[in-house]
Structures are given as structure tokens and as C-alpha cells.
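#struct-help
A.M.: can someone run this one for me? Single chain, 111 residues.
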Amino acid sequence: MRETKIYAYYDPADDLIAPSQFIIHVDHETLHTQEELIFSIDGPFEVVEDGQLENFIDSKPVKFIDLDYTSDGRISLKLSHLASRYYNSANKFIIQKRDIEELLWFYGDEF
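D.P.: on it. C-alpha cells below:
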């Protein structure tokens, strides 16, 4: 993969208004040269359908401490934390909706 991509998964058992998970597929160069990846929760994102989930079975979980909120209202994913935790052996990561909601709540914003 030559570029980082962010996908959204909408769980059919959820409200379908917001993604229940974000799946981040980070390219090798970005993972090893950038401290963080900044993105907006408004997208645009490629949507992952149920039948495509098997492509992301090896994704590693992102923890709340791996996330931050920027002054312009975007999400910062601390790539350096992930590279360290997973010994540079992973490049697909899953962020749960509840962690985004908790982060936004902490900073006085909403999903």
C-alpha cells in the first residue's frame, strides 16, 4: 500500500448515523516517519461492508491514550505510540466509536 487510508464501518446493529469503528490502514512510510495522523471525523471515508471485514482481521486496537483532539476540531492518532506498542509489526488499526465519543466529551464536543 502506498498511501494511508481511513475506512468507516457502520455496524448494522448500531444507529448507522455515525461509524461504529474507524479502520486506519497506515502505509509503511507514514508509520515510520510521522508522529501522528490527523483526520476529521466528518470524512470522507471509504465504507467497509460486512463482507470486507475479513480484510481487516489483523487490525490492532487503538487505545484512548493513543488519541488526541486538535484545536481545529480534528482527531490526532499518535502513530509513534502504535509503532512502539506493536513493534512496527502492524499497519492496520481500529478505533472504536466509544473512544472517539469519550475524547470529544472530554474536550466539550460531540460526535
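A.M.: thanks! The beta strands are 5-9, 21-25, 36-39, 46-48, 60-61, 67-69, 75-78, 92-96.
D.P.: also worth noting: The CA atoms of residues 44 and 91 lie 20 Å apart.
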